[in-house]
Design a protein that fits this description.
Layout: H1 11-16, H2 42-57, H3 64-71, H4 75-81, H5 85-110, H6 115-130, H7 134-141, H8 151-173, H9 182-201, H10 207-221
Helix pairs in contact: 2-3, 2-5, 3-4, 5-6, 5-8, 6-9, 6-10, 7-8, 8-9, 9-10
Amino acid sequence: MRLPDRSGPGPAALLRRPAAVRSDRARAGTLSAVTSTSPSSLRGRMLEAAVRLTSTVGWAKVTMSRLADEVGVSRQTVYNEIGTKNDLATAVILRELDQFLAGVTRSFDENPDDLTSAIRDSARRVLKYAQDNALLHAVVSATHGADTELLPLLTTHAEFLLEGAKGVISERVASYDVGIGAERLEACIDMVVRLVLSHVMQPSAEPAKTADDIAWIVERVLR
């Protein structure tokens, strides 16, 4: 099999590309760019703190002052780095989606010669990551456990998650030799993504077992 092309954009970049330059499968509008979100950066520490607060006290009780206290900076510093609370919500959601898709990308990088293994590992990573991630569950369902204030953004980004995941997988799968046509392949990718996301919301087994079952289905479809 041909090796996947690793020179393309990362998962977050794919999600944030303007619709005019995004593939049809990953087209979902334009997202606000998120600058450095590494844990060591100030912005990264703010977003991590926002996720912790959202998971413990709920989004409605997250304020810029509370976030500033959590990180140990002034409220003005939070405004300068993040912007408004609406900007904070978008940045937090994009951070979760980026980490979600980064696991998919890593799985394809680690299985350049075996598409079934890449999909199995992707599913396992995603389901493992989602096990205790209340915010990701909220994004997938667009309602589950979410404050009313956060619902409009979750509804919007749920579509980005679906289209972004399909776009990332489609770009990587294109470098493998598969035995089915483009239309059937697209349907297969859509099925796999929706199946994984359904298990994010309602798991029926441990991540490894579910990933094995999904890979078994994919292997037979691709024969």
